[in-house]
Design a protein that fits this description.
The protein is of the alpha/beta class. It folds into two domains: 1-86 and 163-175 and 196-225, 3-Layer(aba) Sandwich (Rossmann fold); 94-162, no CATH class. Helix content is 30%, strand content 26%. It is built from six helices and ten strands, in the order E-E-E-H-E-E-H-E-H-H-H-E-H-E-E-E. It has a six-stranded mixed beta sheet, with helices on both faces. Strands 2-1-4-5 form a four-stranded antiparallel beta sheet, covered by helices on one side. Helix 4 (118-131) packs across helix 5 and helix 5 runs parallel beside helix 6 (177-193). It is globular, with a radius of gyration of 18 Å. The mean pLDDT is 93. Bound molecules: adenosine-5'-triphosphate and magnesium ion. Adenosine-5'-triphosphate (ATP) is lined by residues 14, 23, 41, 43-49.
């Protein structure tokens, strides 16, 4: 089976001239559809940079990065947009809009380039919030939710568009052990049901067992753990 994410000798640097700082060095990794891969490694080792390149949020120039059969290295904006539309993102900070309810935050994602009616968007969003255990919190705003509940809203928001890939950058960082584990378990369960691929960056050794595979990024170089 072909890889849904296929990275071959990717190198990436910040800066230029004497200030050039190599961040990713000849990174090669292939990830299959439905696989859950955790990336760990020291602070500054390039994890977030790697995730943003895979997600079409940052341009790379050296090597090959094929995501959903699109080449992202030296790609034009249209290619990156096409890839981004098939990816769900979860960040360390939940990034929910404070003035919107949980339901509105999730359904917003479906407004872009979608053919659903508003009623269908709301129904699908309510279903997804119910799936993450927030069926009784649909009309709560972020401030009225706990940190763990907010992160579950973020998970619902990332999954509601039925993405092929979910990219998560330290999604449990602001959560205690129990809610962190719960959030990631829910993410895993929903992803397995729909064969969604997950690439998740974490420092959190307590959640490593949800992974199919753990890789370590150290000083810009990938190592299998
Ligand atoms: N926008 C930027 N401009 C210049 N250098 C950057 C930029 N973003 C990151 N870097 C540098 O690139 C290196 C890798 O950063 P990155 O954010 O990918 O690390 P990380 O592994 O995600 O770290 P952490 O675990 O602390 O989140 C760091 O040395 C950082 O200083
Ligand atoms: Mg980071």
């Amino acid at each position: 089976m072909t890889a849904i994410i296929d990275v071959d000798r990717l190198s990436f640097s910040f800066g230029s001239g004497v200030l050039v700082q190599p961040v990713l060095k000849d990174v090669t990794i292939a990830i299959r559809q439905g696989e859950i891969v955790l990336i760990t490694g020291p602070s500054g080792s390039g994890k977030t940079t790697f995730l943003t390149i895979i997600g079409g949020l940052r341009q790379a120039f050296h090597g090959s990065v094929k995501v959903l059969d699109q080449q992202l290295v030296n790609s034009d904006e249209q290619v990156k947009i096409k890839v981004r539309q098939q990816i769900g993102y979860i960040f360390q900070q939940h990034n929910l809009l404070k003035s919107l309810t949980a339901l509105q935050n999730v359904s917003m994602t479906l407004e872009m380039g979608n053919t659903l009616t508003e009623q269908q968007r709301l129904e699908r969003s309510a279903q997804m919030l119910t799936a993450v255990g927030l069926g009784d919190r649909l009309h709560y705003k972020p401030d009225q939710l706990s940190a763990g509940q907010r992160q579950r809203v973020s998970i619902a928001r990332a999954l509601v568009g039925q993405p092929k890939i979910v990219l998560a950058d330290e999604p449990t960082a602001s959560l205690d052990k129990q809610s962190g584990y719960e959030a990631v378990s829910i993410l895993k369960q929903l992803a397995k049901e729909s064969q969604t691929t997950i690439l998740l960056v974490t420092h959190d050794y307590r959640i490593l067992d949800v992974a199919d595979r753990v890789v370590e990024l150290e000083d810009g170089v990938i190592k299998a753990v």
